[in-house]
Amino acid sequence: MEDDRARRLAANEALVREVNARVEEIASEWTEAGEPMELICECARDDCTERIHVAQADYERVRASDVRFIVLDEHVLEEIETRVGTAGDAAVVEKIGPGREVVSAEA
After folding, report:
1. Which residues contact 41 (CB under 8 A, 6 or more apart)?
2. Which one of 3, 39, 60, 85 is CB 3.0 to 4.6 Å from 98, fit for a cystine?
């Protein structure tokens, strides 16, 4: 995969992660401990609006790393990320390659 494309895809993921961070801030006031939050899939597809369901504690665990994202399993792009676990009904991925630099810089 071209470095420019990998960087653009990573920037897409970082943007959605920012949206989800705002949702998490609001959800923390309205949800019970352990209750799943509804978030947007943090995949690289710029047209994805699919939802994932993740407990706040799991989301915070993933967000503790600048290079990890929560995506639907079928949205994992092996050429730019690797599966490292699960959270709620989604896969946890870690960026690899040039995209890793992008998401680290934007964190």
Report:
1. 16, 48, 49, 50, 51, 52, 70, 71, 72, 75, 90
2. 3
Query: What pLDDT is attached to residue 1?
Result: 65
Is the entire prediction scored with pTM above 0.90? Answer: no
Q: What is the maximal distance between C-alpha atoms in the chain?
A: 43
* 47-85 residue pLDDT tens: 999 999 999 889 889 999 999 999 999 999 998 899 999
User: CA 105, 29, 20: angle at the middle one, nearest 5?
Assistant: 30
The token pair that represents 105 in the structure block: 């810089």
Cα separation, 90 vs 54, whole angstroms:
8
**Cα 57 from chain centroid (whole Å):** 14
